[in-house]
Protein 1
Amino acid sequence: MFLSCDLERPGRFVPDEDRPAQPRCQLREAAPGIHLLVPAAQEGLVRLGVAFTDRRCGGPGYGRSGRNPALDQLPFGDAVHLDAAYRPRLAFPSPGDKRRVAIGKGDEVLVPPYTFIATASAVLRVGATPVFVDVDDNWCMDHRRIRAAITPRTKAIMPVHLYGNVTDMDPIIDLARKHNLYVIEDNAQAFGGAYKGRKTGTLGDVAACSFCQNKTFTTGGEGGMVTTDNEEVAWRCRSFRDHGYDVRERLRLLEMEQKLPYIHTMVGFNYRMTEMQSAIGLAELERMDNWNMPRRKRNAGILMEALAEVPQILHLPVDTPERQNGWYVFPITLDIDALTCDMQTVLAALGAEGAPFWNVFWPQCHTEKAFTKKRGFGDSGFPFTSKEYAEPESVDYAKVEVPNAVWHQSHTFTCFAFPTYTEDDMRQIAHALVKVIKAYSK
């Protein structure tokens, strides 16, 4: 369990008569003017979380929604994260020493093609090149295909816990360590999931989670959070979300707040959370473990049991003690060749039954015009057209071979296990699917 806060007014969140003490957490001063709210019995397991939003305009003023610490100190169980679209340029100390390895121009990052484009876009935004690695039958990056994609330019691997399914992380982490690569989790869709007892978002060097309105955990709109156990990375993220503002230095000088000029040490953006988003996030967290996730697990379990023996269904979500699903959505891979109709007819029939099913969410990333037309930064085409910073074979996206991802795109559709659904709702949904499949079976 962990959380962090960059309090601008030290002691502001100390429990008092109006705020009941949180028995599992305590405030600890990490540096002058900086307090971390940490688990009382597990201080050694603290990871740092930095909240972001996509807001382009500031709030009422300094110290309020403009630089609101509230969401930085959320008790997120084991993980809080950031939407992949808002990742900053990442820099990590190398294992065992104090050198920094920056991901930027000339570098390559391995990503799956079967995901929302934000994963690959995050790589492009720092001038690096996304290299696509095929997925397995769990819709996640296939670790068996990673080694062949590694080149001298490779700096990181970015697995995506797609649909709530948790990627098999151990083989990926082993490969990364062997080749001195960094692991960046895209945990946008698996908040609440776990891998071998550890929450998703705490498995790699840094992670990102989405707070988008349709995700498992939301703050009522957009934004997200980065998580890392690297304090320097956390400070860089805090700076990036606030126009490159040196948050750490400012905290040391609060007593001179009205006398100091602005301090900006890097190029950043306005991705600060608002107080309203923070309030929604706090309220949602209170029911995450006692309402949201329990009901999602219950609802998904009803579907799993009802669909387990349907022969025309080839793959259902992964949910084992070692890979506990986050239940963002409920993907189903259908043997369409065993039916007398195509996927669109199946979905239309399910809609006629009143059942909430949806087609696969996205096309393959590399088939989007951003890649096929090589539309990079402005009119420059960077990094796609760069002879110095990109390998021609790495940006020849017409030759990307990801047969499993392509196959799943035409055979997978999704259902939902929203916590607002009742047990009877789920039984009706399962009945509708079985009915339609039987009606169109050969």
Protein 2
Amino acid sequence: MRNCSMYIDYDFEKAPKSHELMKLLQSNSLKTVIKAVKTLILCIIHNVNYPRMLMHVFNYVVPKQKESHALKKVMFYYWEIVEKTSKENGKLKQEFLLICN
């Protein structure tokens, strides 16, 4: 488990598959997107790996932040816990470099 200042018990038998979570993040319903981001946060805290989810968050969730204060608040938690550097070389992930440019 990763070092984290909060611990939330979560039933991993109900943890969605990667493609299911991607569909939820692409939803037009803000409530569905917020729920999906919360699920993603819980999974990341408990060390469940979704390696390609970062680009889907950039593409589908970030543009919707301005529509909902609740989504913006949940995204602050997401940005706190998401891995920003690669484990191989310790450099900033390519996805973050792509977004910055």
Protein 3
Amino acid sequence: MIVRGCNVLVEQHLTGTTSKGGIVLTEQHYLPKGTVVGTGPDVSDLKEGDIVYFVEHAGHRISVGDDILRVLESEDILLILDNKDRKKAS
């Protein structure tokens, strides 16, 4: 996929439990988190593999296979975890 402009493609990490019917029951009080899988040419502070937190209802949600992806504007990214933060957040 080619990401354009100041957009960021993020693979969303779903947190929560799965019901017997296979529905993911997410924890509502946390910001959504994901891994950057692509950035547009106008995004300079993010790279593939960065773990980010983003605005809950931001962007457009798409599914590719079993993956849930979000196409976000770069300003909807609230936090970027660095290596020492990743150990604490997992």
Protein 4
Amino acid sequence: MVELASEGKARALLMSRQYEDAVKFIQTEITENRSLEGTLGPMLPMEAERLANEAKDYDASLQLISLTLNMQPPLRPQFTQRMKDLQSQVQKRTREQNLTPYPTQAVPQNA
């Protein structure tokens, strides 16, 4: 029962884009009951992936990733590695989007 209540609150915080509150809540819940990590831990990478891949909201995804990677105690390595991998992918996508090609000008043949 506690697990369902914790999951519901975490999901509500994530869906309302209250990422800092969501991460703090999940961190507190896992600290108090380590067995909740199996339920609450995957919610953070899943939401960060949804933001990046479906919503294309890279800023929000990176914010959630950063907050998650700074959790103390940290999540299990499988979750933190998933976040680090996603962080690299999102940073690459944002760099690619920020690259704007310079307009090409015709160069005279005899220049």
